Structure formats: C-alpha cells, structure tokens
Amino acid sequence: MNIFTDYIHADLYYSLHALFEKRLGWNLYAPHGEDWQQANIFTAIFPPNSTELEHQGGILPFHIDAHQYIQKRISFATFKEMSFDILVTGYYGNESVFCQLQQNHHPSSMLIRQIANIGETPLSCKNVMLAMNTRMPKGINFIKYHPEHLDIYQPDNKEPPKIIRSLFNNFSSYPQAIAPWEKIKGSLLDFTFKVHGHNGQDGAIPQKEFYRTIQDSMFIYHPKPLGCCGFTARQALSCGKPLIVDKRYCRQFKTLAEDYLQDGFNCIDLDPAIRTVEQAIGMIREWSRPEVYQEKSLNASNTFRTLISFETEAASIKEWVLSNKI
C-alpha cells in the first residue's frame, strides 16, 4: 500500500514510518518541492524545498540522521501520477487540504486524521488514528494507539548519576512547573538539575542524543501542562527512568498517560490533591536509594512494555484499515 502524509515533526513522522513501513511493509511518502507551493496546496508544515527532485524522477530519498532512516519525499506532479491507498494528515490546519487532495486526485483512498495533540477533534474526516483519550464525536470511526518511538530507548542497567532533568520546551513559560522545581532544587542539594529544550538554560538536546540524555538521568521532571506526558514520558519510561509529573494535566486534557503513569510505582505525582511538594521531595530521596531506585526503574520499563505493544497495535491498525478502506 502507498500512504501519503504531511510533515509535523521528526518524532511523529518517524512513528508513522515505524508503523506503516517497518511493521506493515507499506510505503510512506511526504510532500517536497516547489510545485506544491506553486499549486497553493500547502502553506505551512512540510519539508523544505529542494531541486534534487528534478534529478530523481520526482522522488527524493531523504536521510534522517536523528532517527537513522530514509524518508520518501515526492513532488506534487509525482503525487498526481502515483496511486495512493491512504492519505493521513496529522495537522488540523491541513485537514481541508487533504480532503481536496482525496477528492481531486485519489477519490478511492482512505482519508485518515491522526490526532496526537490535546483538545483536537476532526473537522470533517471520519477516520481517526487517535493517540489520545479524547472523546470523539458521534459517527467518527477511530482506533486508539501509541505512536512508536525508536527502539534504542532501552534501560542501560548502569547506576545513573543523581541528575534530575526537564526536557520540555519553553520551561520558563510554565510557572506551574517552575514553582515545585525550585522547591525541589533548593532541598536536594546533592542532585544536579538540568533544564533542556527550547529556551532551556542548559540548551536543547540534538535528537540523536536524546536517548543518551535520558539514560544519563535519575529522574525526568515532566509536569508539562500542555504536553501532558506524551513522547518524552514514554521514552523515559522505556529507558527505565521514573518520572516526576503532575497527573492533573493528563486527566484534564485526556492524554494516554492517564493509563500508563502509576503514582508511587513508576512516577511521583505532584498533584497537590495527592501530596505536597515537601512530601514529593521525601519520595525522591527514598527512590534515589540504589535498591529502591532499581525497583522503580524496573517498574517503569516493565510496565511500559506490559501496557504498550507497538506490534499488537500495528496489527490492529492494519485490520482497521483493511476493513474500512473505501
């Protein structure tokens, strides 16, 4: 099968590559080239232009260093010439564009909206790959799943340094996260505290170094109000790193982390209805003891692998697609 999608960001695109190409053996393509712009098809969020398309029959094999795989990018002319079975958009602003692409060029294709962000529901698309717990409107044909990440996110079985890291972007924009961070930092003087991500004082981490940065940590601090424990949280758990979170946001915005974060087991919940920051500090001290940390680290990695099977979800998506395709 041939699948066409837009480009949102590296991790989300890789998850589609892992699902459709690595697990199901299908072909995934993204838009690339000036003729998309000239035809006024996409106005935002697609790979940068390249004249290389003129020399490769409209298809550009583009190596993604961070994730070590090849993206297949195509010109608009090639898109019109090819046969596509599925059109997938992960960006709400492109849903109407994809409806037009289906109607005008590939009317027999299955149109799918991928939703992995908070507060989003489909505008007109009836088929949804849902990476949230968001309640879908009546009449929406959806399947819930977890976007896959790189398999290099594994426990390294080394005793980690006493580092607590924040890895989400624009940390300074979230006073709800800063206040407990400062209290914890002021109490745990034997720990090192690092703030990465865009605008982070310790600098953004290159994507290909992200997993090593997680492994080189004892705890990942991730009470992100709007991100609510998606990719980064799953990657941390997969590496066996307990999380410091505020699960209120997961419940409020209906993220999948509602299901896989278990307070006192693989994470420490900063929800003030659960405990005070001072109590959370006491838990961090207790969990940092080597024998306790080993247990919590195993909880994190084992629970992740028990609750989430990318292979099983891929098989379910294949069945869903084949049974619903027009």
Can you lay out the helices and strands and say which pair or pack?
Layout: E1 2-5, H1 10-23, E2 27-31, H2 34-38, E3 59-64, E4 69-74, H3 76-81, E5 86-89, H4 95-105, E6 110-115, E7 127-130, E8 141-144, E9 163-166, H5 175-187, E10 192-195, H6 210-215, E11 219-221, H7 231-238, E12 243-245, H8 247-253, H9 257-260, E13 267-269, H10 277-287, H11 290-307, H12 310-324
Helix pairs in contact: 5-10, 7-11
Task: Please name the defining characteristics of this protein.
single chain, 326 residues, Rossmann fold, 8-stranded mixed sheet, 12 helices, 17% strand
Explain this structure.
- By secondary structure, the protein is an alpha/beta fold.
- The protein folds into two domains: 2-146 and 309-324, Rossmann fold, CATH 3.40.50; 163-307, Rossmann fold (3-Layer(aba) Sandwich).
- Helix content is 36%, strand content 17%.
- It contains twelve helices and 13 strands.
- The protein has helices at residues 10-23, 34-38, 76-81, 95-105, 175-187, 210-215, 231-238, 247-253, 257-260, 277-287, 290-307, 310-324; strands at residues 2-5, 27-31, 59-64, 69-74, 86-89, 110-115, 127-130, 141-144, 163-166, 192-195, 219-221, 243-245, 267-269.
- The strands form two sheets. An eight-stranded mixed beta sheet has the order 3-4-2-1-5-6-7-8.
- Helix 7 (231-238) packs across helix 11.
- The mean pLDDT is 91.
